[in-house]
Design brief:
This protein is α+β, with helices and mostly antiparallel strands. It has helices at 8-29, 95-118, 132-153, 161-167, 183-209, 212-219, and strands at residues 4-7, 34-35, 60-61, 65-72, 77-84, 126-127, 130-131, 180-181, 224-227. It is built from six helices and nine strands; from the N terminus they run E-H-E-E-E-E-H-E-E-H-H-E-H-H-E. The strands form three sheets. Strands 5-4-3-2-8 form a five-stranded antiparallel beta sheet. A two-stranded parallel sheet has the order 1-9. Strands 6-7 form a two-stranded antiparallel ribbon. Helix 2 (95-118) packs antiparallel against helix 3 (132-153) and helix 3 runs antiparallel to helix 5. It comes from Probosciger aterrimus.
Length: 228
């Protein structure tokens, strides 16, 4: 018989697991890992209403994508175009970024699998006599290690030709040159920290769902158990 067990700690762990998976996935897909050096304003970069020059545009570069400004001469305006610069894995700008993509992809796939399973932990608390919380926590720890490896390797690719075209000639491995770090990189770091927090917190979720109070509720014949 399925017993639906909901506790504050198990629900918090489930929500954090889902948030972490989405945060890492969004960061990986974003082109805002590097913010390039400002492009000088041109005569076209003028606000038609005020006549003032707009701020210089700063293109962005991700692991496999980029955002840049394209000009529409016939309309005297410019639009931002975002999309992948690499049509396949081999076209990713640096071997270091290829390794980063692999490590992050593996870590994110594990996190997404755990996030999916976490939704069902309210009804299923064990699998093959092993606590599903402990198994998921172990997987989150492994995912965190993959994410750390990817984030450590990523700055080594700042010296590739693609990065130099965005960041200037002084860009090199672990040196940004004229670029700055975008929100996606910080999001990936924050998500990695939260991944390890989730891995540790999974033990608390397991304790909460197997407590004496829960066992008493089960013995009383209750199928839906909600505890603070």
């Amino acid at each position: 018989m399925c017993h639906v067990i909901v506790t504050c700690r198990s629900m918090l762990w489930t929500l954090l697991s889902i948030v972490v998976a989405f945060a890492e996935l969004i960061a990986f897909m974003s082109a805002d890992w590097l913010i390039g050096k400002a492009k000088p304003s041109s005569s076209e970069d003028v606000d038609n209403r005020t006549g003032a020059s707009q701020e210089p545009y700063r293109p962005t570069l991700g692991i496999y994508g980029r955002c840049t400004r394209i000009s529409h001469m016939q309309f005297s305006r410019r639009d931002t175009l975002c999309g992948p610069y690499a049509e396949n894995f081999n076209e990713i700008a640096s071997g270091f970024w290829q390794a980063t993509a692999i490590f992050l992809a593996v870590g994110i796939m594990i996190l997404c699998a755990v996030a999916f399973v976490s939704v069902f932990t309210m009804c299923v608390q064990s699998i093959m006599k092993k606590s599903i919380f402990n198994v998921c926590g172990l997987l989150q720890g492994i995912a965190g290690l993959f994410l750390i490896l990817g984030l450590i390797i990523y700055p080594a690719g700042w010296g590739c030709q693609k990065a130099i075209s965005y960041c200037g000639p002084y860009a090199s491995a672990y040196k940004l040159g004229d670029c700055s770090v975008g929100w996606a990189f910080y999001t990936a770091i924050g998500g990695t920290i939260l991944t390890f927090i989730c891995a540790v917190f999974s033990a608390q979720a397991e304790i909460a769902t197997s407590s004496d109070k829960v066992q008493e509720e089960i013995e009383e014949g209750k199928n839906l158990i909600c505890l603070l």
